[in-house]
Structure formats: structure tokens, C-alpha cells
Design the sequence.
């Protein structure tokens, strides 16, 4: 969806002053977030491994078949052109 800049400007003008500051802060956050470079795989490989043990809930979820989708089912459902395990 394309939003016209005039529409954004109009919405901001309709806000009360304190909310205009909030909108400004949020727009700044969005700009800063979009300018950050994501970590490359090399940077990820150089990071220290996470050795924090799994919680009981995480272990329960890991052992559960709920929500499990086979590679073949995902391939069919999403029309993927790769072989999945």
C-alpha cells in the first residue's frame, strides 16, 4: 500500500501537540531502524554461542509435535522450489 506524504502530513497536523512529539519520535525510530545494516552471516558466526539452558516451557514446546510441518507439506503449501527436509 502506498501512502501519500500529504496524507501523513495531514494526519500529523490533526494530532494534539504531545501526540505530535510521539509521532515524530516514532518516525525517527523507523528511519534509524531502516538505516541499520543487518548482521552478516560472518558477524553472526563470530559471536559467542548462547549457552543459556532452555526453560521447561521451551523444552516442552521442542518435544511437542503441535505446529510441526514437514518439509514436503511446507513446499506444497507455500509453492517453494527447494527441497526441504
Sequence:
Amino acid at each position: 500500500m502506498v501512502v501519500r506524504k500529504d496524507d501523513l502530513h495531514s494526519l500529523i497536523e490533526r494530532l494534539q501537540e504531545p501526540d505530535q512529539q510521539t509521532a515524530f519520535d516514532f518516525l525517527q525510530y523507523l528511519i534509524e531502524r531502516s538505516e541499520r545494516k543487518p548482521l552478516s552471516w560472518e558477524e553472526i558466526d563470530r559471536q559467542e554461542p548462547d549457552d543459556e539452558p532452555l526453560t521447561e516451557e521451551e523444552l516442552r514446546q521442542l518435544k511437542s509435535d503441535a505446529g510441526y510441518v514437514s518439509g514436503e507439506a511446507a513446499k506444497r503449501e507455500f509453492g517453494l522450489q527447494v527441497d526441504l527436509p
